[in-house]
Design goal:
By secondary structure, the chain is an alpha/beta fold. It is built from 36 helices and 32 strands. Helix 2 packs antiparallel against helix 5 and helix 21 crosses helix 22. Belongs to the DNA mismatch repair MutS family. MSH3 subfamily.
Length: 1084
Amino acid sequence: MPQPALSKKLKSKQKGTNGKQITISRFFDAKHATKNRENQDADCKTRDSKNVSSQSKSNCNFEAAKKRKVSHNEDTTGTSSDFGKKLKSSLSSKIRLGLHEETQSKLNAFSLSTSHDKNIDLEELKNRFASGLPDLDEQNDNVAKDNDAEMYVDPEDDKTPEAECKESSAKVKTVSHGSDKLKSFPTIKYTPLEQQVVDLKAKYPGTILLIECGYKYRFFGEDAQIAADVLKITCNPDHNFMTASIPTHRLFVHVQRLVTAGYKVGVVKQTETAALKAVSDNKSSVFMRQLTALYTKSTLIGEDVAPLNDIARSDDTEANISQYLMSIFETPCEENKKSNESLSIGFVAVQPATGDFIYDCFTDVISRNQLETRITHIQPVEILLPPTLSEATERLLKDTSVLSSSADDCIRIERLPEKKFVYQQAFETVSNFYGNDHTVGGVIRLQDVIGLPSTVISCLSALISYLTEFKLERVLKLSSGFKCFSLESSYMKLPAKSVQNLELLKNLTSGKSKGSLFWVLNKTLTKFGERRLRSWVCNPLIKKRDIDERQLAVEELSSNKCECFDAMKKCLFKLGDLERGLTAILHKKCSPLEFATVCLSLKNIASIFHTQKNMFADKIASPLLQTILQEIPDLLSDVAFFSDSVSLQHAKSNDKTQLFVDDSQFPAIKDQKSKIQEVRNEIDQHRSMIRKILRVPSFNYITVSGTEFQIEVKNNMLNTVPSEWIKISSTKTVSRFHSPFIQEKCKLLNQHKEQLEIVCNDSWIEFLNSFQERYQNYRKAVSHLAVFDCLLSLAKVAEQDNYVRPQMVDNENCIMIEDGCNPIVNLLLSEHQQYVANDTNLNAAKHRVMMITGPNMGGKSSYIRQVALIVLMAQIGSYVPAKSATLGIFDAIYTRMGAADDIYRGRSTFMVELQEASEIMNSATNRSLVILDELGRGTSTHDGLAIANATLRYFTEDVKCITLFVTHYQLLGQFGDMYPDFVHNYHMSFLVHSKSSENEEYDASDAVTFLYQLVRGMAAHSYGLNVARLAHIPPEILEKARKKSHQLENSLNKNRELKSDFLTIMKCPPENLSKLLSDMIPSL
């Protein structure tokens, strides 16, 4: 019996045998279905007579149809089997929801018993149908059992209709009601490929699967709909699923797009080949497939996502050069276990693509400033979390993702089971992972991690479990990238707000790299050099010896004293991302071309540096440059062996069978190739027999469309062709054949070829394992190249912009800058604009506080950023934009700048100000640089002035650090009188174009020209109405504001005069009081 047909695809959900919900889509055509229903009564009798004989011959378990009389309408006749199925199909939902009038009339007219005159009770019939129907909606029930619908069969499902019917009947459930039995609705029939898809989806939930089917990768069900939305491809119904597909050669493009959109993507490939399957025991079954790779934002490593030239440097400066995977766990502090306000938080961050590995454990308050600082520095693309965290931590992570500059920048959050983070199990996982490699050098050993804090151990355990799923766990064993984040003895502390306010990595306007300090300094030639420079910007040095070492190298490179630098620089041009390439080799996820490219690049570098080392090693003064030149040739001394072992030509074509230059290193390959050659020799010997048969002494085999060893015979000589020869193809003039011998040998040859590919793949993995033994040396060499690239970049910036080398002093905390400039603003200005340079003279011992006032838009914020950036650049090891500079070494830079609320965390503008100020007060030391921009402006004048006064007094008297304080509060100028040795008043100069005469008072509407020059003294006014005029506030509003400003100004001046007179009277001696009062009466 042929399978019933479905004519249009619908989506529904039905429980399969595994109990999981799966997405089903079926075909259904409403127009044809309506027509079929109109004609079903007329055609029923004819179909029944044809189906009775076919059903008797089939092996289905459906009962044979028996003719029954049914009287409902005048022309209604048919068999109980057909109408029973039709009744259940069309009315199943109605029975569940309650019988309608139409259903009642049909049920009264139908009888499903074996006798014609026996009727079943209506309620019993209702119960029978209701108990035997699956949980589908009405429309799906109607379509599923429509006898006129057409079932679409998957190409891989080559079973006969009889075999399918047997399988289908085995799935039918029988429901008993006393002596009567009724067959229930059968479960959904899947093709072998679809069943394979269902099993894979059940095994890898939450993963979008790309399943290899021939020359394309297919998506099924919900995955197809997601792929259609993200990739902008079509999604079509096919049998039981919606499907979409992409060509195999575009896999890497679409995988990257799906991963960038935040999805977890799996690639499922065929693990059987056609030739080997043909001789296997399961040759009639579907091709075996298994998951070969998983990808997320942090694990984009492998041939599927880094094909051919992908390791070449990209010109996209906005691309996220960080791909950190971060694991976070928290526990209550020992002294405060009952509160979530203060927690012990641990994290481990790893970059699988490069091998960088960072960890830390710290105590954080409810604002989670410490955690925010680390997330800002590391910029992870993916975070692993336990099922539950504290509310403050959850809010921070949510806000960080929501406030991303673009959808592609959103952090992917992955929740792992709680047991992955439980310390007892985590300790066991970590012990087992690190306890095995006790003889291998360059790896982290158990004793190195066993003493880490418990929260770090928990995070490390979660990372081990997660990366094992991706087969990337080996990167966690490399000691070369293992370091703690909180190394206060080595690097300057830069809180998250300082990184943002100083625009170190991204500008505050658009969130892009352009307009940041990193953008100014980034002249690197390689991707790994760019990543290293970014790390330098976020981690300025605090040891004078290290700073001087970098500055000396920059000085030597910028002066170009040695000829070897040009040759060393040339080897960096168009150099691929060797750091990522080496790590891909470590994970055994590289293509042959990537391996060959990396090895060839390292070989060229080793040759160039070896030559320069012999010629110019004694002419280089910088110890840092000498180390680079001396060590790189030694570290890469044996890379030529790997480079010469593979054929670049065959690596480009990805032909692993011819990849190795010398097959003697791999006996299995050599043996398999000899078997192939034996078969070819036998086929060549068979050629003499063919020549005799065809009587053509010069006969030779031909190859057409990839089919080898074809026997081409002219059509006028076909009488000489033996009857047992197999015809392959023909044209008007010739025909091509295979003899039985050739046919058999070709099958054997194909089997040997596919077996050779398997052997070559195994040998390839063995070859990569031998390369891994030298990984640490090669990675160290690439690290030296990254440092050299960064130094070249700093030298180029210093040379182009006429920067100077700052003088660093270790025993004095000071900032003395002559004609300093803001490096970012100076570079962004056009050719017709000129930046106004300013001096800075600060010393923690005597002149530690600079009070800056001036008109709005006068350049105050730009100036204080300039001072902080010059200090930071100097401690990076860079030259600075100034005429001269003498700087102390600071342990941290703290900033409180800008005015913005934090709606996502429920914080007002003033609350944000105070929390940032509180963090600075709790963290700053006498060797810190503190910058406060208009503190207290988020509340009333009196409260804001009081808070600003108390804060400034605290930093002046208690902390005693260098402080730059910007304000519009004129009363704070009294600090210059209170602390004349420590606090000096400055303002940004300007010119006022007054509309009034010289004898009249200040007019708030006066036009102002900004001079951007820092001078001593307080500014008398802020000229806010000038900014309002520049913002095109309507003139009538400006006029009213001007009058009100005069009124408030006069009232304030009068109160000040009265206060001054009162203080004078109170301080006057009694004998002089009468004279004083007589003098003051006219003024009163």
